[in-house]
Amino acid sequence: MTSFNLLVGVCLGYVALLFLVAFLADRVAAQGRGRWLRTPLIYTLSLSIYCTAWTFYGAVGYAVRSGLEYVTIYLGPTIVMIGWWWGLRKLVRVARSQRVTSIADLLSSRYGKSNTLAVGVTILAVIGITPYIALQLQSITLSFATFAEADSASDWPEISSGIWVAIGLALFAILFGTRNLDANERHHGIITAVALEAVVKLVALLAVGIFVVWGIAGGVGDTMARIDASPLGEWSVEPGRWSAIMFLAAAAFVCLPRMFQVLVVEIDNERHLRTAGWAFPLYVLLMSLFVVPIAAIGLDLLPEGTDPDLFVLTLPLSQGQENLAMLSFLGGFSSATSMVIVASMALATMLSNHIVMPLWLSRRGGAAAGSGDLRHIVLRARRLAIIAVLALGYAYYRLSGGGAGLAAIGLVSFAGVAQMVPPLVGGLYWRGATRIGALAGLLVGSLLWLYTLFLPQFVGFMPESIVAAGPFGIAWLRPHALFGITGLDPMTHAVVWSMALNTLVFVGVSLLTVPAPLERLQGAQFVNVFEHSSGLRGWTGYVAQSEDLLVMAQRILGAEDARALFRREAEAQGVRGQLPEPTPDFLERLERHLAGLVGAAAAHAMIGQIVGGTSVSVEDLLAVADESAQILEYSSQLEAKSAELSRTARQLRQANAMLTRLSEQKDAFLGQVSHELRTPMTSIRAFSEILRDTDDLTPEENTRYAAIIHDEALRLTRLLDDLLDLNVLESGKVSLNLKDGNLAQVLDRALSSALAGADRELVVRRDPGAEDVALHTDLDRLAQVFINLVTNALKYCNAEAPELRIRVSRNGPDLAVDFIDNGRGLGPEAQAMVFEKFYRVSGEKAGGAGLGLAICREIMQRLGGDITYLADEGGGAFRVSLPLAPGLADEAGSTVS
Ligand code: ADP
């Protein structure tokens, strides 16, 4: 019989070995020789902390209770590793590019660096994981107790021994988990020790299995027969429960803080995922291979009432195989310790980063941030947090009395952390996911989990009566049958409700809320991480001169910034002087810094040239060219856009100015019209009132007043006619009546019409030879223009003997007809304005409203010609020009001199 003291001695020796391994690994890594510590194999083995004491001991107990269902616990991670490796790769890439330290950090970073979210996730994790840690403490003390029972000589205080275990683990985690701060400087010591423990527990379980199958049962055939004969042969598959547990195991594999730590934070190179993709499923396959045989043979051989959770230990003991039992004990011990160490370290990082430090900083104000001892504060906070986590675990263990079945506690934990799946997966693939959505979903899911699973599970947290009849006797609020849904086992029930509502609320609230700019930015960086980050090409193994790096960095960052960066790095490394050691981590950080300015590919190529490890490859150059081309194209697109914008703006300005001008003209025009209308109206009213109200008017007066009213009415009619005419012409609604004719005839007609009844003598001088020009135009409209010009000469020529000369000539392709009188003509200002509506030369007594020449211009423009004033002709002089019809131009040319 192994003496109990020997067991304690072996145990202490094993722990000492772990310390040594961790210590050596840390030292080797610190000296920069740690490359072999970072192989895919070690990464795969470190993932084995998924298999805790719960799986080492508990799987057999699970199989005894529920048959093959325990396989689901292993299938979950296998599915993730094989079926979601692309998702894992994305997760690792995101975590590396965002320098994430924990799952709380990842979610907070995705949703706009929200600390509220991180606090929520941390609290959820602590609530969910504490019982799990208690479970590990329990399994260690239980296995000690098993040996103690066998060795009647010792007096083993079962429960209180837990405190020593907890203290030992805390010490280990503090020593190797809080050596340094940077997320990039990983925990080489712990990971190496964990890998060693992974080997120990696998070897132990395989050894027990082989012993059971070939040592006790006598071969595979015999074992199979015994399995068939045992109650294990009668297990049945429950698809609902199986899928629920498989989902939980898959979710926990990614979201458990300790799993996230080894899977995502500690990974050295994302290529390791490729090896782990097949190697880790193989590992869990081996771990699960002998579970059923051990369970069946244990049931067969061991006395009734033996705890099946400890068959792995009690079976070899019962056969007198002390050494095998010792190995098995060390396997269980390894499973428990590696889990507790990594879990407490991961939880401590979350607690210190998201709860302790923010509180401490807000109490100290911003001042502490500037001082240099912040690193010490953070490390101290982490150490305290590790102690707190283990103390909580121990307290829970003491309070719960270590009773509940091992398997149940594990699944409850899994269901808790599974609440992080919707915001995690949503955050990786859906840019529309928002912080409020994630918070709301997480809150609803966690509350449901607490209510339907966590609280009812643990004795003392929730009175029996609530579980049985619902709070206040409300049956549809029973934790295991929400809304009257019965028939599901409590686990499936809780998973379905919490996950469904969590997802629903997350998606719904995300759709209803608008992400803040930072969330939007982070969302884009997460969802499109492969476009934003270059591959993780590490710089391990290359040599570089810091001076050369500084020279290059100065060129790109500017002298001052570069020197400041190098000084900071040197300080962080604890190196004296201005130049940091060119460690791989420093090179990586420098690259990221440069990448912000010159693009990732260019930065990588530049550093590659200096460290000499790589010559610039064609691929690198192409990548650089590609990036520059993209930038160039983008900037030329921007330029084109801005040119287009200013063009549009100019056009808009012009349109606006024109509209303003038109609007002003319209106002002026309306003002003029009403003024012109009012003048004759006023005299018509005045004289008609005189005629109506005065009885003693002489007949002459009567006639005179009536004549005035008649004249004014005529003037009004004329004015209205003119306005209507102008309106028709301006609106373009005029229809031209094109006819063939002769200029002389049109002039004849116009002159006789204008001069008939004239009260003045006007001598008209013409040139009949030149007037014989064939026309094809609207002859009536042309005559109207001529009449107007002749009438104006009659009205406005102030010469003693008024005279009008009509001159016909050819002006290029046009025919020009000039009307020149011998009056005083128009001054320069009037020349510019005379064709505007309502323009009259001031002081002019005779005449109309000033519309005549405006109408003339409109008509001539409709006819394709123009009317202009001729200065320097000695009197009033207007030129009417008219294009000669193409067929008539030659003819005109021959007749016009
Ligand atoms: P209306 O229809 O009132 O005659 P017009 O547009 O024909 O107005 O003429 C505008 C102004 O131009 C007249 O008020 C007049 O002062 C001036 N004007 C026109 N023709 C002559 C001319 N041959 N000699 C001098 N002034 C003229």
Automatic annotation (TrEMBL):
Task: Tell me which Gene3D superfamilies the record gives.
Answer: 1.10.287.130, Histidine kinase-like ATPase, C-terminal domain, Sodium/glucose cotransporter
Question: Coiled-coil intervals in this record?
Answer: 635-665
Where found in the cell? Answer: Membrane
SMART domains xrefs: HATPase_c, HisKA
Has keyword DNA-binding?
no
Q: Which InterPro entries match?
A: HATPase_C_sf, HATPase_dom, His_kinase_dom, HisK_dim/P_dom, HisK_dim/P_sf, Na/Glc_symporter_sf, Na/solute_symporter, Sensor_HK_Regulatory
* Protein name (database record): histidine kinase
Q: Which organism is it from?
A: Pontibaca methylaminivorans
Lineage of the native species? Answer: Bacteria, Pseudomonadati, Pseudomonadota, Alphaproteobacteria, Rhodobacterales
